[in-house]
Amino acid sequence: IKTYDGTTTATLAANNYALSGAITGDTVSTNAPTAGVYDNRNAGTGKIVTVTGLTPNGTDAGNYSVSSTVSGAIGRIDTRAITASLIGTVSRVANGSTAAVIAPENFSLSGFVAGEGARVNQTVAEYATALAGTNLTVTAVLALPNFDANAGTVLSNYSLPVGPVSGPIGVLTTQSTAAQVTAIVATVTVV
pTM of the prediction? Predict the structure, then answer.
């Protein structure tokens, strides 16, 4: 069992090996190599793991032969967790609404294997308040269709951060008002 790391490398232990066919009373085992190879690098269960370099060990090893290469559906690669955060600034003039428009650049995704990644295409978000201010909490809700894989990335190898993601990136500025002063000039005529 391992977490997705972009490789096919498998690590084994002695309990991953079972030797059959030995005569009762004979002392024989295998050398139990610790390195093997998954059938592919993608997350999944029941994956085929192949090990090479097996040899018989023990006082009666000379009486036995083992296949130097064995395979079995014992592998599991778990998905790698990705976290999302909001970065940068989302700014607009306060207008009584809490609606916010965000861009892919406002999302930071971490946890990808080197050379892999994704972009978030969600543009809808919400300010926590409609009142003018800075460092306002902005929240976007992510779903699986909101992630676009970069070239070479298989998103099913990752546990993507679906649900709300929030951060203090909001700015709502006050509306500028132009005060208009009207001068009333009265002409008074004295009779």
Answer: 0.83
